[in-house]
């Protein structure tokens, strides 16, 4: 081997020997955690009694003897005296400063848990222990305490539900709730100081006491860690000031778990009865050691009165079914109800179902239905409150069933009324079951077989017309001598059984309902009018089980029958019921002439594409005494409809249709009804025939002359 090669080989061997002999550092991994959680606040001393330990567990062989690592403290002041020469299993813990510990490993052969006691004082902020990233142990930050951010004080003060109190009587204050942020803060002998502002004209009422001076009318209930403790309290004025109260708590056994107390039954009263107490919130300042001074609302001064609250608003269908509503009546202040003895209730917009009234959970209150004079209808009910406790704020809960009346819709209101007291609340809504439309029928006395009018009855939701139910159409009360004798009936999405006329009423039997909105249409209503029937308007009435579950319910169509005597020939009206006279209309002209007087209109006659003269219905009608209140506008199947009460006739014109109706008899026309700029036009000849008047056409002057002689 050459000398140069031998040198290279020697260098390589020497290098290998050097690498093998170098000491190797171990990067151990540990599982780190506390032995338990403790509650702390700013200033808490973590000592032997707290028993907090930071455990670091290493697997066998992961640590060398003599290995070291550091633990730092943040927002936590380590206690030097507790760490003086301390040894734990497998290591020695050395105090280096208020925020640093050094740990020296003694043993490494087996799996090792190094348990480091935690001693020190909690500072503000987020107290924690930190294992650095370059440590032989697993790095991380470990919070001391249940919460990260510590509270400044050991106790927190709050109130329960704030009650209303009267401006003239004693009143109970809200519960005072004191909760520990750190377990063991509340101890026997803890003092609670309460102060009312002198400007409120209120003072504390000293509680009733037993022979040993402990309060009996004020109760202390333990919360969480103090639950079940027999805690008592003594109360006294501070420096004889009745607006300052000192409570001393006795019998608290400190708990390892955070707890709290709830002080119940504190009362205030008017200080100077000659001075008024202002309405509004009453605030009290509450002070304890280890708690922030807190000012909280403990009551609201209010006038007497009641509040009504509905558990769940109801939705009814008019005439169909019933639902139960539950209502709670509560006093604004104690004594509001007991001073009135009873409260009367009535329901607007619906009916109370007889026998359905119930009291819920109150033995001191009675409830009674008020029955109408004419029958079993419930007109309202009375709540008798004489036996309730006048010293506390009472609530009374009751329920009843409600049924919507046929033909109604809108809100249902419950109204409470008593001496100088009235309150109301909306308890639900009634929705329409049926949509009913009808045009006016013009009749003459002493005539039979008079035909006219139509009635359309449509379900607002499916299932209103039930199989086996019955629909009755009759004349309203006070119309003796007017009766139905016949009618035509059409149905959609349903099936009818028999239709019959009995005692002047039309009776329809429902054979099968529909899962869609069904429609019943009555046309060519044939009627008889006795000679003794007086002139005037009369009602049409719908009833029967198809209309309502209540046999007494009715849907009344007001003033849908008009009875008028036939005009004599020397009157200003012709026998057709229209005014006598002459009216002329010229194509393209906005002026028209009525009985030699020139009038102006906002529409002009025109010649249609089919060479028909089209005249504006409104102005032709107006010329012969048909006023605007006799002209009605509606929609059918999306199309505009005009209904005209023209003397003895009722005309129906549908936009875009060449079929008109005269007293419900279909009449074909030469051209279609047209609506232009809000005005309805029909052919000139058809207009005359529908009104039963004469018309002449001058081709020379392009003028139509209508005459009613």
From TrEMBL:
Residues 1-28 form the signal peptide. It comes from the Bacteria. This is Copper amine oxidase N-terminal domain-containing protein. InterPro entries: Cu_amine_oxidase-like_N (IPR012854), Mao_N_sf (IPR036582). Residues 594-705 form the Copper amine oxidase-like N-terminal domain. Keywords: Signal. It holds the Pfam family Cu_amine_oxidN1. SUPFAM superfamilies: Copper amine oxidase, domain N.
């Amino acid at each position: 081997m050459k000398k140069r090669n031998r040198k290279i080989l020697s260098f390589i061997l020497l290098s290998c020997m050097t690498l093998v002999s170098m000491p190797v550092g171990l990067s151990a991994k540990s599982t780190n955690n506390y032995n338990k959680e403790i509650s702390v606040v700013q200033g808490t001393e973590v000592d032997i009694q707290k028993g907090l330990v930071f455990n670091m567990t290493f697997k066998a062989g992961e640590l060398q003897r003599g290995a070291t690592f550091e633990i730092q403290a943040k927002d936590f002041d380590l206690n030097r005296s507790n760490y003086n020469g301390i040894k734990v299993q497998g290591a020695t813990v050395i105090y280096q400063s208020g925020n640093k510990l050094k740990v020296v490993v003694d043993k490494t052969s087996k799996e090792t848990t190094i348990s480091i006691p935690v001693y020190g004082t909690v500072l503000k902020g987020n107290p924690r222990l930190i294992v650095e990233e370059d440590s032989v142990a697993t790095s991380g930050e470990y919070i001391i305490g249940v919460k990260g951010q510590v509270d400044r004080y050991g106790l927190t003060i709050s109130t329960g539900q704030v009650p209303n109190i009267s401006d003239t009587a004693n009143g109970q204050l809200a519960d005072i709730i004191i909760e520990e942020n750190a377990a063991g803060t509340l101890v026997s002998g803890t003092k609670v100081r309460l102060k009312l502002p002198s400007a409120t004209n209120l003072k504390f009422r000293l509680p009733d006491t037993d022979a040993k001076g402990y309060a009996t009318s004020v109760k202390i209930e333990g919360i969480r860690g103090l639950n079940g403790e027999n805690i008592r309290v003594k109360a006294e004025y501070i420096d004889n000031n009745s607006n300052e109260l000192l409570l001393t708590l006795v019998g608290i056994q400190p708990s390892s778990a955070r707890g709290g107390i709830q002080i119940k039954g504190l009362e205030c009263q008017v200080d100077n009865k000659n001075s008024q107490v202002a309405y509004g919130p009453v605030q009290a300042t509450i002070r304890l050691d280890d708690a922030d001074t807190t000012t909280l609302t403990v009551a609201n001064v209010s006038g007497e009165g009641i509040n009504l609250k509905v558990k769940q608003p109801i939705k009814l269908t008019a005439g169909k079914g019933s639902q139960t509503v539950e209502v709670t009546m509560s006093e604004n202040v104690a004594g509001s109800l007991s001073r009135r003895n009873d409260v009367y209730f009535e329901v607007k917009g619906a009916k109370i179902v007889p026998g359905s009234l119930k009291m819920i959970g109150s033995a001191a209150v009675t409830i009674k239905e008020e029955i109408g004079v004419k029958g079993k209808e419930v007109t309202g009910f009375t709540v008798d409150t004489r036996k309730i406790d006048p010293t506390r704020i009472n609530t009374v809960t009751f329920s009843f069933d409600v049924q919507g009346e046929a033909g109604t819709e809108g809100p249902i209101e419950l109204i409470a009324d008593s001496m100088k007291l009235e309150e109301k609340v909306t308890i639900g809504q009634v929705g329409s079951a049926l949509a009913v439309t009808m045009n006016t029928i013009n009749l003459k006395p002493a005539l039979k077989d008079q035909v006219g009018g139509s009635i359309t009855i449509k379900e607002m939701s499916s299932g209103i017309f039930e199989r086996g139910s019955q629909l009755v159409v009759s004349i309203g009360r006070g119309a003796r001598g007017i009766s139905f004798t016949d009618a035509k009936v059409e149905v959609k999405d349903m099936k009818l059984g028999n239709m019959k006329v009995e005692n002047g009423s039309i009776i329809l039997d429902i054979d099968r309902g529909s899962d869609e909105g069904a429609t019943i249409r009555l046309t060519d209503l044939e009627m008889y009018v006795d000679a003794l029937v007086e002139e005037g308007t009369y009602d049409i009435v719908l009833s029967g089980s198809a209309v309502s579950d209540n046999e007494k319910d009715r849907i009344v169509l007001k003033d849908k029958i008009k009875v008028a005597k036939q005009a004599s020939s020397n009157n200003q009206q012709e026998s057709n019921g229209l005014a006598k006279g002459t009216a002329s209309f010229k194509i393209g002209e906005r002026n028209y002439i009525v009985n030699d007087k020139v009038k102006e209109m906002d529409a002009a006659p025109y010649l249609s594409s089919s060479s028909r003269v089209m005249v504006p219905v409104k102005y032709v009608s107006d010329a012969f005494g048909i006023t605007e209140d006799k002209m009605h506008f509606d929609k059918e199947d999306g199309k505009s409809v005009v209904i005209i009460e023209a003397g003895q006739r009722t005309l129906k014109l549908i936009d875009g249709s060449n079929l008109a109706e005269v007293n419900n008899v279909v009449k074909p026309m030469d051209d279609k009804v047209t609506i232009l700029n809000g005005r309805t036009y029909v052919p000139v000849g058809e207009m005359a025939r529908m009104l039963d008047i004469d018309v002449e056409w001058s081709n020379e002057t392009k003028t139509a002359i209508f005459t009613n002689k």
